[in-house]
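Priority: medium. Attachment 1 of 2:
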């Protein structure tokens, strides 16, 4: 679980995020999520996910993200804006789940089928 501002600055970095991405909470807080996790060629994708969340949409995405060590992992991402009682967005809540092993198996099956 990762919570960011509407601009993408990290407000909360869960223990699960620490384990998956390798950055401690102290390293992640107040940093831009794009700088921490997103390969440069995928910045547009992350910006689109954030904009869709801010527009009230909530979808699941499979995306490639970078760990602290520079390794890449595939994650399922679901993000949504959380609104306060004044009708403004307080923050964006994202759940990221490692699906690298599942993707490797799926890709191998697809490759074997062709």
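Attachment 2 of 2:
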């Amino acid at each position: 679980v990762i919570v960011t501002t509407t601009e993408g600055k990290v407000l909360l970095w869960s223990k699960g995020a620490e384990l998956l991405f390798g950055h401690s909470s102290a390293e992640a807080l107040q940093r831009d999520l794009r700088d921490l996790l997103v390969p440069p060629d995928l910045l547009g994708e992350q910006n689109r996910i954030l904009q869709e969340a801010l527009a009230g949409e909530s979808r699941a995405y499979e995306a490639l993200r970078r760990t602290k060590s520079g390794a890449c992992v595939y994650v399922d991402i679901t993000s949504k804006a959380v609104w306060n009682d004044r009708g403004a967005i307080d923050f964006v809540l994202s759940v990221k789940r490692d699906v690298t092993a599942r993707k490797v198996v799926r890709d191998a099956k697809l490759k074997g089928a062709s």
